[in-house]
Structures are given as C-alpha cells and as structure tokens.
Amino acid sequence: LVFTEEDKYGLYSNLLFKYFLAEGIVCGHDLFVASAKEHPDNILKELPAPLLDDCCRKELGDEAAAEKSEDFQDSMKIAWRYQNLPKMETSPTTYTKFGHYYDVSKKMSPELCQSVKLHSFYLHEELPFEPTMKTWNMNSGYARLLQSIQRIISQEGFDGSDPQKKQRNVLRIGIQSLGSILWGDDVCCSDAPEDPQSLTKFLYVLRGLLRKSLSACIITVPAHLIQNKAIMERVTNLSDMVVGLESFIGSERETNPLYKDYHGLVHVHQIPRLNSLICDVSDTKDLAFRLKRKQFTIERLHLPPDLSDTVSRASKQDLAGSAKLLSSGCGAMAIGKKHLDF
Amino acid sequence: QGKFTLLRDTRTDGSFLVHHFLSFYLRAGCKVCFVALLQSFSHYSIVAQKLGVSLAAAKERGQLVFLEGLKSCLDLLFGEEEQPGQPSPLQFLSRDLRALFDFVRVSLSAAAGDSWKGPVLLVDDLSVLLSLGAAPVAVLDFIHYCRVCVCCQLKGNIVVLVHSNEDSEDEENALVVNSLCHHSDLILWAEGLATGFCKDVHGQIKIIKRLSLRQAEQDLVQIYQYKIQDRNVTFFARGLSAAVL
Predict the structure, then answer these.
(1) Rounded to whole angstroms, how far apart are CA atoms B19 and B46?
(2) What family does this belong to (chain A) (predicted)?
(3) Do B62 and B114 form a contact (C-beta atoms < 8 A)?
(4) How far apart are CA B171 and CA B165, in angstroms?
C-alpha cells in the first residue's frame, strides 16, 4: 500500500499517479482507478506514453556519452582524494530491466490503453448505496469504494478464488485524492473532524484486501490539508510505504539557489518491511525531483558548490537549515532529533 | 511467569522484537495466542522460518492460536451472516473489546491433553485498535481483563507492542501507552538514535525492568544499541558497534 502525500497543487503527485497506472498498462496488469475529483476516463486518457526500448536507450545514451567525454580528460587537482570514488549516478544511464520509462510530453495511445481491463469508480456516478456489506460506521463514499474493489477482486479472481483461471494477473489500484472533501470526509477541512476514524478504517480494510489478493495500490492524499496530525501518524502506521512530495511552487525555496535545478523534494517517510526483519534502505535520504520536458526524474539531491563571491552568513545558515530539513529520516529506520547523519 | 512485557517503539519499527518473542516462546514450548492485527500470516511465517521456527507446524499441533486481524475483518465485512453462537472475535468494532477478550481466554485456557508450558498472549499491535474505532478506555479495559486472566489466573505472560512518539499529537495513543508503561513489569523501548540515521546502527533499545511497582527510582535501566540483519539482530553496548571497532 503506497501512500503518497500530495504536493500543494497536486501537479506532481498526479504525475506519479499516472506513472503508476501507465506502468500497469505496459506490464499488462489490470487497472482499477477511483476518484472523486476527475472522471477516471479522463485520467486514463492522459497517461504518459512509454518510451520504446531503442529510442530510450539512445536518448539517455547520448546524454551520458556527452557528459562522460567532457570530464574524462580532467583529473581532479584539488580534491584528488575523491577521484577514486565512483561517479555518482544521478540519472539512470544504463537501461535496467526493471520498470519502463515514459515520455511525459506524449499521451499513451488508446489502443495500448484498451489492451488491459480497466475498471473505474467515479464517486459521483455511482448508484445510491445498497449495502451488501455492513458499513461499520464508515463514510459511505469509502464504503462504496471498498465494496467495488472487493467485488472486482472476487469476480476477476485476483484472490485466487477461481482455480480454473490459469493466468494470474495483478490488479493495480489507484485512488486519487482520498480524504478530500469530495469523498464526503471532512478530515481535510477541520481540526476536529466528525468521523476521524473513517479514513483509518478504510485503510485497514483496504490493507486486508490487498494482502488477500494479487494487487498493489497507490493512494494520493492532500496531506497538507489535514490539520489533525494524529490521523497522519495512524495512517502512516497502516501503510506499507509513505512518500511525500513537496513542490517548490509558491514557496520561498523556488528562488533558493540551492534548488535551482529541481522542482521539488521527495520525502520517504516509510518503506515497506515485508516478509523480512530488515528493509532495503538506500544510502541517501535526500531525494529531489524535476520535471523536464519529456521526463520526470527523481534524483539524489546534491548541493551545488558554494561558488558565490560573497560567502555570507545568511546563505550558510540557509544551507544548514535546508540540509537539516533534507535529512529527515524515514520511519522504518530510526530518525533522531539532531541531524548528524553519518 | 505472570509477567507483562511492553514493547514500545518510537520513530522506528519495533516489530523485530515481536518476531523474536514469537519464536522464543514457541521454541520454549509455550502455548501462544497471537493477535496479529497489522500483518498477514505469511509475513510472520516467512520471518519465523528465518529464525528457525515453523508457524504452520505450530498451528497444526495446537501450540499456536493465530488471529489474523486483516482476514477476520474482511470476513466480518464481506462475508455471509455468521453462524449464531460463533461471533467473530473482531465484533468489538461496535462497542467494546469483550469478544476479543473472550477469544483470548478461550484459546489460552488449558484444554484436555495439553502439555504446553505456560500460556502467552502476544499482541501486534495495540495502537491499531485505536485506529479502528475502539476508545482508549476500552483498550485499557481489554488489557486489564487479559492481565487478570492470563497473568494471574493462568500464570502466563503477556507481550504487547505499541507505537509511541514523543511529540505526537495522538493523545489517545499517548494515554494508552503511558498507562501501560505504569503497569508493565518489563519495558523494551526501541528508539531511533539521537544523532540521526546511521547505516550500521539501526537504533537503540532501552530495557526498563520494574523492581517495584511503587517507586520508579528503583527501576533498572539498561541501554544497548542494535543492528538488524537478515536472520538475527545483534546487540552491543553503546558506541561499540562493529563498524567502529
């Protein structure tokens, strides 16, 4: 269960959401899209087109070759000790077999979209609720969504209930803007919501459904609107992976020279620890994203060298301050109050 | 015998302690009732196999009673009408946790022909009950009833995992955790390092042993640091991790 905290204007989290769905189509998984904001058909029309193997490799290969030929000649003069360290890979230069790459400027062709089974749930088009499940005091929008998901899972045999079905497939579920007022939940509007447990109950049942079947789910939530932090803590506990996107639009970081190459930060709050005692932690916690014309990339954030003529105190403090914010750890591994990561 | 152990984690994941206690008690030959609310049976089973215990076999021979919260919840919501006389243990979702307690009591009461050593109740994790709509008082009542039944009457042990955060805004959770801390005989508190993230030391664990329930000054406090590996966890004194020596 991947839980994404939306950035303020929802631009980038929408992009991540579409990537997830597009990957599903390319891999041949079935899709289930639920939204209360935008009609799922519209969402599906705007998925990014996958890059075909050859042209992707060529494009990335060209860029990488250009970079490499430049610095190959220079050896480091001052910081020569660093010469022996491996070059930091900020973007994928080798084509890995895991996952696909997408071209954001092109839309996915309708034929490709139709190649998998699509299920959708648009809250405002659903028929009035006939409870065939006990609602358990949950918000009716959520209850309907759960019922719909459960019906698809059992009908299409994702939970292994149909032994006749030879080919088992995966269901990718995408739920957009959960918890927003459009779902009938006021958890994003008020400090003391009427029914704070609807969201957590929904997530618990969803988690049960996901564990019981071959499905994966991404949820985006406008977390910046949720005033009640207790709910966010509980929600984090109930999800496997929690990722937050923070975009620089409209904040003072947009003009901060540290971040001039990037459009926002990626905060990984929790990574899944399933079927094992340990989890797979990457070396670095500082990730940032940027949206180029054709690609959306998530890279390690590396601060540019401080080459300004006036090395003022203000900029140094700023650096320290942002570095502090950057290295907030993720929940599965320990984080602490002071930040002397080593 | 008759001990209540509280597992507590702050800003990190203390579930490795749950896995440890599960395999520890199974290997010791105790009858275990495991209320697993957050993960599926196969998750625990796979980790237990790495630690050398087979949960499926334990279930077969009646040593382990496993309540898989996620599955029971689905059965409760989407299943057909339950048979009368067999209420689901998660029926609590309406009012109080009485049904859950009954389930625990029934599973740990000695049946004829049982040759297991003391019963053990293991809960992972208690904070989820609050997310599911149980009031904090109901949760505390449940624990109290379990304590009376398991620790005093059946002379068994209880191990419970809770999450806590120092600057958390979740008051209900804080209430439950504080109350349980006062009632525990042993507290194992897994925390993140105060200095931030480190690859070689995953966190520190504080072991607080209560010698007397009246005076807190007499508690024995020990602090170790740990690193989690694939098949076990290594503990070492502070500052003496293998990466440093």
Answers:
(1) 10
(2) Belongs to the ELP4 family.
(3) yes
(4) 10
Hey, are the CB atoms on A237 and B131 less than 8 Å from each other? yes
Superfamily of domain A2-50+111-255: P-loop containing nucleotide triphosphate hydrolases (3.40.50.300)
**Res A255 pLDDT > 70:** no
Q: What is the mean pLDDT of residues A85-92?
A: 41
Contacts with B80 from chain A: Cβ below 8 Å: none
Q: How far apart are CA A246 and CA B158, in angstroms?
A: 42
Q: Residue B30's domain spans which residues?
A: 4-79+92-204
Quote the pLDDT of residue A96: 40
Q: Contact at 8 Å (CB) between A323 and B180?
A: no
Q: How far apart are CA B79 and CA A143, in angstroms?
A: 15
More confident residue, A322 or A44: A44
| Domain CATH code at residue B154 | 3.40.50.300
Cβ–Cβ < 8 Å for B212, B31: no
- The pLDDT-based confidence of A72 (bands split at 50, 70, 90) is very low
Contact B229, B51 (CB under 8 A): no
Residues A56, A101: Cα–Cα separation, whole Å: 8
Whether pLDDT at B20 is above 70: yes
From the list B170, B194, B232, the residue facing A233 with the nearest CB is B170
Residue spans of the domains in chain A: they are: 2-50+111-255
DSSP string, A119-170: EEEEGGGSPPP--SS--TT--HHHHHHHHHHHHHHHHTTTTS--TT--S---
The rounded distance, in Å, linking the Cα atoms of A268 and B45 is 27
Of A276, A335, A338, the CB nearest to B230: A276
Nearest Cα to Cα of residue B162 among B194, B184, B195: B184
Nearest CB among B15, B131, B230 relative to A234 is that of B131
Interface membership of B124 toward A (CB under 8 Å): no
| Number of folded domains that form chain B | 1
pLDDT grade, residue A325 (50/70/90)? Answer: very low
